[in-house]
Each structure stands twice: as structure tokens, then as C-alpha cells.
Predict the structure.
Amino acid sequence: MEKDFKRPSFLVSLLSVVFLFIMIIAQLIAVGSPDIHLTLVFAITLTVLMLMTTGTKWAKVKEGVMHGCEIATIPMLILMFIGMLIPTLIASGTIPTLIYYGLKIINPSVFLLTATLICSVASICTGSSYTTGGTFGVAFMGISLGLGIPPAITAGAVISGAVIGDKMSPLSDSTNLAAGVTETDLFAHIKSMFYTTVPAFVVSLILYGIIGARYSASSIDTTVVDQILTGISQNINITPIYALISLIPLIAIVVMAVKKVNALAAMIIASIVAMILAMITQGYSIIKMMEFMNYGFSIDTGVAEVNKLLNRGGIQSMMWTVSLGYLGLSYGGILEKTGIMEVLLNKMSKLVKNAKNLIITHVFSALIVNLISASQYVAIIIPGRMLLPAYRSLGIRSDVASRTCEDSGTVLSPLVPWGLCGVFFTGTLGVNTLEYMPFAFLCYLTPIVAIIYAITGKFIWYEKDNMIKSNVEKASEING
């Protein structure tokens, strides 16, 4: 511990965070949507001024900025490469194929259920909500336009499915991180999460089923659907054989995920595979493909709805989101390295005298860290490590602690407008976080289930239970 490191007071720490939320609420009331970029700039400025006038050295502030940017770099590169991947998947026919046959096959009344289930399977297979959102998520957003289902509801369904993989897949970095932070066996951690995730997922599916029942084949504007189908088929080769070939990039992504290929490498390889397919099957030149990958796919089909569906993606289209990610993580890095986050969490840690208070405190601690750090990883690590001794002192098993890390830290991240997941889904799906938030049911039902268990004492396991079970088994062996 540095000898000259002076932690800020609770008042300074509280003001640093409260100012951000006051600005956001004021803008919501005044203009309906906050300018998150400048809000973060002003919040960073005020925080740094208060810190430096109360004894914090500039070197510590700079360390926080660098730490935040370091955390942001890999996710933001992934975001840029997904921006590069999307136009190649469009040009190769992958996404148009999914949209075209999706419109032909999927009934509007079960569309939201279908989107949630397919995205959940895809995310569990890949271990990545980012990959799922950038592929199937984009396709489902296109299908929803043809079916007349609001994009905000569709985005919520996509995110609810995509987050499952982040939370439950053994291939997911956040799943492995939560297990590691709490020193829990990976598969014991995943097994424990079934108790909170499955009920939340089932309720989410029921809600999507109820909402989806409002949409039926009779409610579809068939003229629009026919225009979309015609526009796609006349401009992109999606005959059955080409449709099957166009799925090769998706297969490649799943295979690379199973083989645990680095996410950055996987995005690049998939983009190259899709680029080559587009050149072979759709006749694009390499110069045109490079233009698409940088600035986004561009085509004039003569049908406005199809143009809206297909003209998207590109590295440059992600720069708004990337800049927000760096600002959000810089702010979070400052709060972490200067001790503001620790001061705030220490106030909450005094509430952990029993299992109920401990788990509720853990959930809200992760929410606060998500809001002020903009990172689900930080929201898993800091509350998880800080509260793990409390779990141990109460004799609660570590898989309850690891489960709570994800029941709050992982699933709440997509709801933070300036957080890593929030900026990703906004940039990829084209729907503002505040718009899809009410419909991302799994993201807030999971922590609610965790809190219900904490209050009722259900599925809160203790180390003594293991000892009793072990003694019973030993006694049975002796008597046997």
C-alpha cells in the first residue's frame, strides 16, 4: 500500500457518484435523453477537481484513467471487429438468409420466444453475448421490422437470450471469472446458478409469450413483408444452396468458440471467411469489401425497408460506442484507483451480519459498481473479493457467493447506458439502452430471484451441510 495514498472522504466519494446521476435525471426530464458522453466528461471533471483539492495526487488519477482504458481496450477492439464482421455477414448473404427465411418461417406470435431461445442456445455454445448479438441479434432485429414488432422489445428478447451464455456457459470469461474470484469449482458455480437463472428465464419466456401473443399473422402488413422478401431475393443470391453456404461463417464462429480461440482472432477470421464467401458467391471485389468493412454495407435495393435492414455495420459506425466505452471505463478507473469505490462499498459492508443482508448487500454493491465502473468484470471482482470473507465467516458455501456475483454483476451490465455491455448492444442492435431496458426481463428478474432466496433462506447452502453429508456417507460405508 502506498504510504502517500490518501483515500477520499465519504462525502467526496458520494458527491462524485451522485453528480453523475443528477445530471442524467435532469437531462431525462428536460430533453428526454441524456448526452452520456458529455455527462461523463463533466462527471470526470468534477470528480478529479474534488479529489485533487482534497489531497489526491494527479499520478493516482492518471493511474485510474490508464487502468480504465486498459480494461476497455480489448472489449472495444472486439466491438470494432464486430462492426467489421456485420457487413461481411450481410455481403456474404448470411444475415439476409436468416432474415429472409426467418420471415417465411417464424410466426409473429412466437417470434420473441424464438429470438430468446435461439440467442440463448447460441450464447451458451459460444460463451459470448457479443458474438450472439452481432450475428443472430442483428438478424432478429431485421426480422422484427418485417413482422411489425417494436425494435425495443426485440432487443430486450435478444439481450435476455444473449446474457444466458455470459452467465452460464463454461466458455464464458465472466463465468470463469466469478468462479475464480470466489475460489469455486467452475461446474459447482454453474450448477448453483441454475437455481436463480432458470426461474428468471422461465418467467422471461412467459412474459415474451404474453407480449408476442399480441402479434399474429393477421396483424402483419403483408405488403411490407413481400417487399422485403422481394428486395432481398432480387439483390442477394439466397437460393437454397447459396443460403446453406452462407452459414459457413456462423459455423466457423461456433467452432472457434468451442476451440477457445481468442475472441479478437475469432472475429477477424470470421470476417475474412465471410469476405471470401461474398467475393465468390455474390461477386464483390476485395476493394468493395474493404469499403464495406470500414464504412458499412451499402446497397440501393429500391426498397426503403430493405435498405434500412442491410445498410449497416462497419468499423466507423462503432466509433460513437467505442468513445463512450473509453469515457465510461476511464471514469470507473478513476473511482476504483483513487479509493472512491472502496469507500462507498465499505459503508455497505457493515450490513452483512446474516445471510439475508449479505446477499442483498452483494446484489446492490454489484449494481453500484456496475454503474460507477461501467464494467461487469469490475462488478464481479470487487464486491466478490470484498464480501467473500463475510460468506466464509457465516459458513455459506462459496458457490452461493459466485452465483451472486453473476446474478448481479453480469446480468445488470447491459442495463448501464455507459457500461461495456450497454454500449455494445446499443451500437450493435441500434436501440438505445433506456428503450430496451424495460424489456430485457432476464437482466432484472435474476437479481430479484436472488434477493427472494436471500429473504426466504431458500437455496442458501452452508458448509456444515457438506460436513453432515460427508459424515452420513462415512457412517453408511462403515455400517455397510
